[in-house]
Amino acid sequence: MKSLVLLLFVTAIHAKHEQYSGWKSFYVNPVSFDQLLKLTSKIQELHLDFVRKAAVNREGIVVVEPKYQDDFLKFLAKEKISNRIHSDDLKERFDIDDQKIEARKLATRSINGGSLPYDNYQTLDVIYEYIDKIAEDYPEIVTLVSSSKSFQGRPLKYLKISKDKFVSNKPIIYIDAGIHAREWITIPTVTYAIHKLVENVTEPDLLDNFDWILFPVVNPDGYVFSYERDRMWRKTRSLKDWSITSFLCRGVDGNRNFNFEWNTVGADDDKCSPIYAGTKPFSESESRTVGEIIDEHVDRMVLFITMHSFGSMILYPWGNNGSLSHNAFSLHTVGINMADAMNRLSLPHFPNYVVGNSMLTIGYGTSGAAEDYAHYRGVPLTFTFELPGLENEDDESNEFSEGFHLDPIYINQVCVETWAAFVIGARRAGDLFGKKNL
């Protein structure tokens, strides 16, 4: 029966992802900062999409539409930037991903973290059911907040976790995920943090000494759309007007929509662009909700982490121009502490984390980003995590046998190692800034 179901599923997805037929992805490896800057300077001109961010001497993966592929290859040759093919056809890669996810649904029903499995990517309904159940089962320490709604009317759910309902003056740790819809691996790292704070408490000092705000799916509309319709979807799903362009080019990049140097660099006025900044700062209810949380709790918030993928990086402000914050030493040292914690637990074929200023590490500026806004408002430690993404090479065929995105077999591993970073990050934040509000 399972074989029949899988066969029917494979048949059904054959027509899915058709819009990505002929799209290619390339490994690119800049060996100098000059090469990195030249590479990233082509992002808007050639509509490049870095699904795994490049750094100096660190391969990135970039997606290129068919009409720009010849120009892109000519540019790489001219600048002598090392490259190789990652995928000749993205549709085929996405089909592989879908088959793997469905096969794991059929083969396993394990529960590795309380009532939420960490052996596969989950639907929004499953994630929300877990959040609701945690709040219902642990009312003495968990408060569910869902007062805001997405453009399509879905509740924006986050949890406040505290031993005394935020009454005391404890420092606050904030972590979110899923503002970019397609970055599925980010979401289980935050639900796993909920599990470790509430269901399987092995570090009791984290509740004794801190209050927590955990927001697993900032962009639920986009997540559902990426899960059901378009695997590469990144933005929200809002409509700005009733024009044909707005219908065809929906949504805003939530991580370009915060009120810090909004739409000045690394963003776009084009509604069809994946990095469209919106009509104004906080035009999106999703980013606005995060901003309101920051503004409400900034006097006590000592650590802000927003989860992204891929790249195995920990990035900090300022991302718009590469200048260093007055707090740069603390940002860098705490970033190193968190990276070391993950690297110690990492699998041998996972890349080590790189830590650094956002622009100086990835070679391009970003404006209107959550990490910069939180720091601008006064949170001393703010970071963007870029989680791992990898492909396993078949030694015999010299081809890559994995799908396009991180295989679900690695979800639990990424959650465990990322939790170790949250633990050390919270403790270091407490040591450095725990009394900033006193």
UniProtKB/TrEMBL annotation:
Keywords, ordered alphabetically: Carboxypeptidase, Disulfide bond, Hydrolase, Metal-binding, Metalloprotease, Protease, Signal, Zinc
Listed InterPro entries: CARBOXYPEPT_ZN_1, M14A-like_propep, M14A_act_pep, Peptidase_M14
The organism's place on the tree of life at top rank: Eukaryota
GO molecular function: metallocarboxypeptidase activity; zinc ion binding
Active-site residues, record numbering mapped to chain: 386
Gene3D superfamilies reported in the protein's UniProt record: Metallocarboxypeptidase-like, Zn peptidases
Biological processes annotated in GO: proteolysis
Cofactor or coenzyme needed: Zn(2+)
Pfam families with a match to the protein in the record: Peptidase_M14, Propep_M14
PROSITE patterns tied to this protein: CARBOXYPEPT_ZN_1 (PS00132), PEPTIDASE_M14 (PS52035)
GO cellular component term, pick one: extracellular space
Start and end residues of each Peptidase M14 domain: 120-429
Region forming the signal peptide: 1-15
Family named by the database record: Belongs to the peptidase M14 family.
The protein's name in its UniProt record: Carboxypeptidase B-like
